[in-house]
Amino acid sequence: MRLAMVIDLDKCTACQACTIACCVENNLPKGIERTRVYPVGPRGKYPNISMQLIPIGCMQCDNPPCVKVCPVKATYKREDGIVVQDNKKCMGCKYCMTACPYEARSFNKYKPFTAEYDKLPEFINPDVDLRPRNTIDKCNFCQHRIDKGIYEPACIRACASNARYLGDLNDPNSEVNKLITGKHARPLLPEKNTKPKVFYVWDK
Amino acid sequence: MTTNTQLKTTTTVKSTPGLGIGGTPSLWFILFAIMAAVGIYAAGTILVQGHSALASTNAVPWNIFVSAYLFFVVIASGICIVSSLGHLLGLEQFETIAWRAITHTTDSGRRERLRPEVIGLRAVTLSIIILLVGMAGILLDIGRPLMMINMLLSPNLTSPMFWMGAAYSIYVLFLILEFFAIRRGDHKAVLRWATLSLITAFFALGTLGALFGMLYSKPMWFGAFTPIYMVATAIVSGLAVLSLFIIMSYQATGSKMPSSVAHVVSELGKVQIFALLGLIFMVFWRIISYFYGSNPDQLMMISGDYAFSFWTFEVIAGLVIPLVILANKSTRTQTGIIVASALIVIGMFAARTNFVIGGQLIRPFEQPIAIYTPTTLENMYVIGLFGFAGVLYMLANKYLNFEKYEQGYNHER
User: Fold this and answer.
1) Fewer beta carbons under 10 A from the terminal one: N or C of chain A?
2) With left for phi above 0 and alpha for psi between -120 and 50, is residue A42 left, alpha or beta?
3) Of the partner residues B59, B154, B215, the one whose CB lies closest to the CB of residue A72
4) What is the mean pLDDT of residues A162-191?
């Protein structure tokens, strides 16, 4: 199995529901967003002008530069193709951040939660560990849900316009493969040869 | 607080060569001690407050500590290269290869072969000190320094950072062994450890270049050119720092420089001309490639936000003026070498900042160039690193007395 995601930018409204859902699902502390919406453009000159808002997260590369450079093997690629981060090992050298061409990784500068959060434990997702301080945080396609057999990360669940799809690249009949062949979804920065597994339907 | 304790110890010792004339500590020592105290304060604050006190962001993960680390460890490797060549070329077995023709007239009027290894003790000590200071610099940039144990428990052999860590650990070990061999006067052992530390210095510089050069996400760093550039800058900055410390040390303590050392310093100045020419060749073609490429990060360096630092400090102050001073025989005096070396060191520090910080500022997906300005705490810690180097060097000179070692060097043999 090679898990991949397709984001249909024709459907995406850049509402940031995915960003918030991810923060809530993964107990992310202040200042960390695993997926965020980048504005690209505006391009051209009025009246022929275009602009695109693209949600960016970890591209779960098949040839991940972060895994190559991590000195302590704190980040690695799982058998299903997800690049995960083991914060029990991470020493916070930030080398993976400089190696990533997509700015997909964040450095967690703050303590997991403030005192107000500690008083409201119902806001903490028990399935996910609190993010330790001074380590790296990244998207892992909601690894804890996939391990339970729920192939629906929080961002997909929250997406109001159903712009995100998760599926198996090895299965020719999966929805992601249909979108890649049918709607010409393509990865970002393919010239970096990282073989990303997040594809974008982007007609502009 | 540290200042007071250090001052107290100095007052108990009469005639302290490293710290000043007579019982009072020199102004240099007080200056370095104040800088070190500032650094200790900043380090303590950063350790308590955590990385939220640093200006690094997700777009610019490596801050000024990484450029300071690069600055110091490259100098340390450069000093080792310069001094190891001294040991190797100075010893009997290597006499026929080079330096044979270089003789000098001693104070007593006798002509004898130049012994570049006369400065060996000072160079090796300085190299160890500067390497440790550089490692102190990187330590606060690491989020969880204790987890560095995982470099041993689960090393990733494809990571340049693992190899760099391994190379510098072995390197500091060889330097310490060389240091003790020099102290014992065991010339065979000195030759062995000098050879090994020279090889390790080159390997370490290569891995340090690879640390940056293997990242294809950062076009300013990427390429096989980066490790070569590291070696070139190491030789230039190593020569500059070594001559600067030797001359300043003699002037500060007021002791007479023996002719053997004076000649080695003068030779270092001559070697520096060729080292500078080599580096200027590299930087020149890098600049030309920037004009051709005209990528946002390259334009930022030659005509954007970093242009002032790049042209004024890195190119003109760091390369052109020192070359003019050293190449002109009338200005290649000891004062001239001090000025040229100080300018090279300043230019090299600017070059490291431009390289490490400037290289990270380019962002993907047509995002605007990132911004990084160090916080006061970060600047204070970097000032403190210079203070640590100065204090440690002066303390080392107090106990090891490089001037006396060098003055007595030719009489011993």
Assistant:
1) C
2) beta
3) B154
4) 90
